[in-house]
User: Fold this.
Amino acid sequence: LRRCLISIDMHRIEESFRGIKKAIQAKDTMQNVTILSPSESLHSIKPLDACCMTKNLLAFYVDRVFKDHQELDPQLLRKISSIANSFLYMQKTLQQCHEQRLCHCRQEATNATRIIHDNYDQLEVRSAAIKSLGELDIFLAWIDKNHQGTSDA
Amino acid sequence: DGVAVLPAPQNISVQSTNMKHVLTWSPVMVPEEIVYYSVEYQGEYESLYMSHIWIPSNWCSPTTGLECDITDDITATVPYNLRVRATLGSQTSAWSTLKHPFNRNSTTLIPPGMEVTKDGFHLVIKLEDLGPQFEFFVAYWRREPGAKEHVKVVRPGGIPMHLETMEPGATYCVKARTFVKAIGRYSAFSQAECVKVQGESLPL
Amino acid sequence: VPCISSGLPKPTNITFLSINMKNILQWNPPEGLHGAEITYTVQYFIYGQKKWLNKSECRNISRTYCDLSVETSDYEHQYYAKVKAIWGMNCSKWAETGRFYPFLETQIGPPEVALTTDEKSISIVLTAPEKWKKNPEESSISMQQIYSNLKYNVSIYNTKSNRMWSQCVTNHTLVLSWLEPDTVYCVLVESLVPGPPRLARPSEKQCVSTLKDQTSELKVK
Assistant:
């Protein structure tokens, strides 16, 4: 991910997540289940696979989670929209990176992504979307960690 | 919805400077009445995947003014659709939509205000506080033929930051520009400001 | 003998106070029971695991805090904790925290700051804050090993000119040269980690004086 320089306003995304964290995580009553499950998937990803994993997870959120979540509260809707549009921008930035073949996808990243989708599919879709939204901080922290080398470029 | 009798607001446009974005429109004239306006926005995500979703602006739903600070609404570097409508009692106008979607990467970046001072032999700069999205590229050099220009990234603005330890009797000049990582753009450099360091008499 | 879950009010304001991964659960007593001999029992939950776990050292305690640093030491996991109040045979419902994520929520303590001076300079040596450890014999882990982009904001205050300026540094030594002799400078250092904002915990302000200018002393003689 270090080579796929992402000029991302992480500050704004993290601020938006802090605006939904309490309300969204409170709606997630299944504390014994996780989607991103830190130990199995994300934290076993090597730096080489970080760019591909980021791309896959952005697609997971943009194509599934944000679509499956119907938010009625205007304040939460604003924050979720902010995150969704920021992820859309990140996708475009990574897309340019992919075209320069710096975002190579190996089996490890593909397997880890499939675990996440499987976790998602095992839950009722609304609950799965709520849980995934509540776990955005895991994904954001992982991006921060894999992005650190460039954040002060 | 009330019957759309009221004319829709016209001349909608966005002015954006230093990542502050303001939507403006012309008034809907109704003698001796107060007309309210509502602003809604839709990011590229909504327009692609949920085109029926429009989100009320944070500050202007409703407002009696003719402008709306949409800075807190435009929070990603993607195109945003914006629309305004007028309301008077139960009468509601049609929506007027901005002709071209607005992307914050078109904002005008102007050079930052700065205050260059010294504390003894220490060159200190205090830059304008423009918010967490702004970094500052500060160039400084010793004013002499063939001087080498040094560059330092300074963040945040609003507090005095140390730039350099200066040599006695020399003059140092400084200029700065802003950098907004979220849109990957710089402003122009500010005018250079120079300070002279008091000379030091050589020891016996 | 299990207590009876009655109308006893719950403890309030239950939160984690986390500094350098030392994670203390704290709460306020239930409202309206001043003077009553209330005790508390704590349980915790590792997000994604199966069940609530007891914290034996925090069963029927009268204090209003409980150190869960050991139980929450894997800072990349997320946790919940809950407390209930007990008074005689009656107990309250559980009061539960939100989801606690040590990696993002712990406050980063200040570094250790050592200052040495001479006539016109002050040398500042910083030692990164250490992660909490279970017992002193354990090998230390620096918070820098967890947050590799940890940096320091060093603020210097010249008490003679009444001027203050800051410098952001990543390395652990900083020499302030060309200072004014025989002048008191005060130094304050704060650890910074890019990412979500964290409560700042600056170091104690330390003030030192640069030495008198030996050359002017010689001239006088």
